[in-house]
């Protein structure tokens, strides 16, 4: 069965789930092509043929012109099954179904609830937009052959109207980010301990509170930032905070760079704000911290608290309270043995449950069902 994965919004290879899906399917013997729109040309990687339709700047271009280019290339490839990874590709899926193709829609986010979090829109506008998006999504997706959901929460919503839904979570590969916790938790003479934040940097992801926490932390700890600021003005703002003097900003790092940051840190921060699209999310970075043997300092959301406290792998705090974040950092620095224990508990939880090797089995089962 020839398989094509389609995306119009993302680069070809990073930590996103469709990269893991393509590699797993190729390793299982499926001929897999990934269609992207990043302007980096065609190539073959990890057994996956990557086809580039070119990059167009601007959201309108992506939604209209890039989507048209993706559909054209998808038809040319003439696959048996198409796996869609962006909401704007739902119309593409409809066209492919009319051509007699099998189609999987991958719901990376709870799109209707995400609309409610767009506070630059008025309250009534958000509500109307959310209802309209949900009605369209449900009407279109009920005709697809299967739905893959990024979290159990999203799975439950699609199960209300679709008979074949599976959650395939973006958990880490076992061993990919292993570090040396003993070295991390016993700093060399003259070396300050470090906590880290890895991922896109934005106000809604807690950067203001994290940098302010560095100012309040009593221990001489530094913060390693690995990621790009989404808004230049925000970067310029937080650089004026007193806590910025304790920050090392690395910018975007590849996986080797991320591994180095994790190996030189004693805890990982994932203190996202309590917005509707984060409360039921499963942030991949939290599980990557756990995989690397780092205790996590996480937002005190019910789902996240269940994971962190259930695995005894870190501390949950109010993400809007810099003092609470600072106190959690101080605890980790001041209690290295307890921090080491939490880190090992997190690594064990990933080994036993929160890992890609188990998630890919659900994906492969879905593909086998569709190929019968």
Note the main attributes of this structure.
single chain; 372 residues; alpha/beta; 8-stranded mixed β-sheet; 6-stranded parallel β-sheet
What does this structure look like?
- It is built from 15 helices and 14 strands.
- It is of the alpha/beta class and 372 residues long.
- The strands form two sheets. It has an eight-stranded mixed β-sheet, sandwiched between helices. A six-stranded parallel β-sheet has the order 11-10-9-12-13-14, sandwiched between helices.
- Residues 185-189 have low confidence and may be disordered.
Residues in helix, %? 40-55%
The H-and-E topology, N to C, reads as: EHEEEHEHEHHEHEHEHEHEHEHEHEHHH
Biggest sheet features: 8 strands, mixed
Mean pLDDT: 92
Proportion of beta-strand residues? 15-25%
Our Rg estimate from Cα atoms comes to: 21 Å
Return residue spans where pLDDT drops below 50 for at least 5 consecutive residues. 185-189
What is the approximate shape?
globular
Termini gap: 10 Å
The class by helix and strand makeup works out as alpha/beta
